[in-house]
Amino acid sequence: CPDRSFSGRSFLITAGPTWEFIDPVRFISNPSSGKMGVELARAAWYRGGDVTLVCGPGVSVDVPGVRFIPVISAEDMLLRCMENRDVDVIIKAAAVGDYRVATPSSSKIKREGRERLTLELFSNPDIAARLGEEKGESQILIGFAAETNNLDENAVKKMNAKGLDAIVANDVTEEGCGFGVDTNRVVMLDRSGGRFEFSGSKEDVSHMILDRVAVMMEGAK
Ligand code: C5P
């Protein structure tokens, strides 16, 4: 008999990279495949959750039953997250671009006669932090942290700075971990000092993360 334990619970999940256009044919992005967020959406839906997935470009989403909202840039993602933030659980698995181009060119930038091209970048809004500021009383907000060193320390700093209830951190320099691959090895840290290590396929890791979310929901009642 299928697990319907999230029946009546609503989720907003973000996945994938963002594209910040330089001109109509070029953009700044990152190697995020969106797989972790898509698997989380699938796992939450599988358990009976009402799931909205706000997803950056280039991500293949094959999850039936999930409300899919495609976005391009960090600013688009912020807008759609704010519109859909009235949920029980928010999981921010997207790799949001930290900067956008200050003045994207409306026509293709030509290479001829240009030895050097300088781009001015503006800092993007921190979506997780904005959601953290407006977090509802019993709402659960979970972030991700892709790190290359001092995993726990950097993750805890981010959890506190962004007002998150828990953070899932991984070392993206480890093999079989993070960007693009089907497996992951993560550390999930929460506000009450809990520390859990999960590894396996992104599908399995999603279920392990959601098991913790279920425990947090019980505590938030
Ligand atoms: O990029 P950073 O390591 O700070 O990301 C940590 C968390 O914050 C992730 O959950 C990510 O989705 C979120 N984030 C965001 N908006 C940004 C940058 C990061 O929501 N502009």
TrEMBL record:
Its EC number is 4.1.1.36, 6.3.2.5. Pathway: Cofactor biosynthesis; coenzyme A biosynthesis; CoA from (R)-pantothenate: step 2/5; Cofactor biosynthesis; coenzyme A biosynthesis; CoA from (R)-pantothenate: step 3/5. Keywords: Decarboxylase, Flavoprotein, FMN, Ligase, Lyase, Magnesium, Metal-binding, Multifunctional enzyme. Its cofactor is Mg(2+); FMN. GO terms for cellular component: phosphopantothenoylcysteine decarboxylase complex. The keyword Flavoprotein applies. Residues 7-214 form the DNA/pantothenate metabolism flavoprotein C-terminal domain. One of its GO terms (molecular function) is phosphopantothenoylcysteine decarboxylase activity. GO terms for biological process: coenzyme A biosynthetic process; pantothenate catabolic process. CTP binds at residues 98, 108, 144, 158, 162. Binds 1 FMN per subunit. Residues 11-221 are annotated as: Phosphopantothenate--cysteine ligase. In the C-terminal section; belongs to the PPC synthetase family. In the N-terminal section; belongs to the HFCD (homo-oligomeric flavin containing Cys decarboxylase) superfamily. Catalyzes two sequential steps in the biosynthesis of coenzyme A. In the first step cysteine is conjugated to 4'-phosphopantothenate to form 4-phosphopantothenoylcysteine. In the second step the latter compound is decarboxylated to form 4'-phosphopantotheine. Catalyzes two steps in the biosynthesis of coenzyme A. In the first step cysteine is conjugated to 4'-phosphopantothenate to form 4-phosphopantothenoylcysteine, in the latter compound is decarboxylated to form 4'-phosphopantotheine. This is Coenzyme A biosynthesis bifunctional protein CoaBC. The gene is coaBC. The chain holds residues 185 to 405 of 405 of the full protein.
